[in-house]
Amino acid sequence: MRTERFQFSGADGQQLAATLDLPDTPPVAYALFAHCFTCGMNVLAAKRIASALAAHGIAVLRFDFTGIGASEGEFANTTFSSNVADLVRAADHLRETRMAPAILIGHSLGGAAVLAAAEHVPEAKAIVTIAAPSDPLHVTNMFKDRIDDIRRDGNVEVQLAGRPFRIKREFLDDVAEQNLTARISKLRKALLILHSPTDNTVGIDNATHIFVAAKHPKSFVSLTGADHLLNQKRDAEYVAHVVAAWVERYLDPAVAERPSDDQPRRVVVQETRDGKLQQQVTVGPHRMLADEPASVGGEDTGPNPYEFLLSGLGACTSMTMRMYADRKALPLDRVTVTLSHRKIHAQDCEDCETKVGMLDHIERVIAIEGDLDAEQRQRLMEIADKCPVHRTLTSEIHITTHAADSGK
């Protein structure tokens, strides 16, 4: 799994911190995950569900709502409606940069939020709620002893899950005005409801209300033995496995992110942070590690950058020779290319124009197997120098570099 971290603009212009968990192959679909009230995108349930879904080929975007975690803004200024608006902006960001989410997943109050946001994400084909309340007003039970104070003073600090949060009168007014049942009845998207019958935070009757209000197709799965926050790893992973199996029926396989054969694939190199220098190299569905030897601060978990360069030249050389031999019907059995790289003094290179300083020197040794005569072998050796990578390395190269957020 590859993880990308970035920011996008929320509904009020605040920068919201986001994480995109990507599968090791091109995604079959994108999902948008909304976490529970006052939780962050890195709450265990969200991380585990996203990771397990990525293993099933589904990319998952999770983010911190305004005023939560690493996102900008003040939590006190948020409402249920503003959270729904942030969800819609997250879907917009996916649509603009990758692909619109086909799946909306919400945990606890996040489940109510995705039900409310669904009508604003036309590409979403499937909605999943996990331990979701049927009415956003339910969340006020967490601080019901302070409601009168909030209404009187307009702004009160309450303790939620052992942490202080400031709740304003506007929040109470907003959740009181929501008519989620009406939205559920007009959903017109496949709905999966997951809920534990022993959930002591959001009772199972909420799942019943959502199920009755929704039109088909709709499904219910009991999370027997699970707690509200899915603190047990097996419960979160079970949810992901159920979602992945259920959603297959509603996904259009044509939406999978598959680059056309005539388009060059991007090479993405990202730090793994598992070692000082270790990098993950991604080329389409392929994943590799790059590193440096221990002698220069790495852990030798993969080839170093120059070894990747030599690998590209060697592979290109062998492929070019093979294509030529097949086209000419030459009896070539196998090609083996051995390469090395080192710095040499320019004055020691008789064929080089530069005579001052140091030069990069690549030595390429080609072994040719097969019942070939001397002329055929000589021609194959000449063809080796015509491989595209060889030509690139020996011609003028133009490289442009710009920051990822520059809009180019």
Give a quick rundown of the structure:
With 408 residues, this protein is an alpha/beta fold. The chain has helices at 44-55, 80-97, 109-117, 147-153, 169-177, 180-185, 204-213, 233-247, 305-327, 374-384, 388-393; strands at residues 2-9, 15-22, 29-34, 58-63, 103-107, 126-130, 155-160, 163-168, 190-195, 218-222, 267-271, 279-283, 286-290, 332-345, 358-370.
Q: Which helices and strands occur, and which strands form pairs?
A:
Layout: E1 2-9, E2 15-22, E3 29-34, H1 44-55, E4 58-63, H2 80-97, E5 103-107, H3 109-117, E6 126-130, H4 147-153, E7 155-160, E8 163-168, H5 169-177, H6 180-185, E9 190-195, H7 204-213, E10 218-222, H8 233-247, E11 267-271, E12 279-283, E13 286-290, H9 305-327, E14 332-345, E15 358-370, H10 374-384, H11 388-393
Parallel strand pairs: 3-4, 3-5, 5-6, 6-9, 9-10
Antiparallel strand pairs: 1-2, 2-4, 7-8, 11-12, 12-13, 14-15
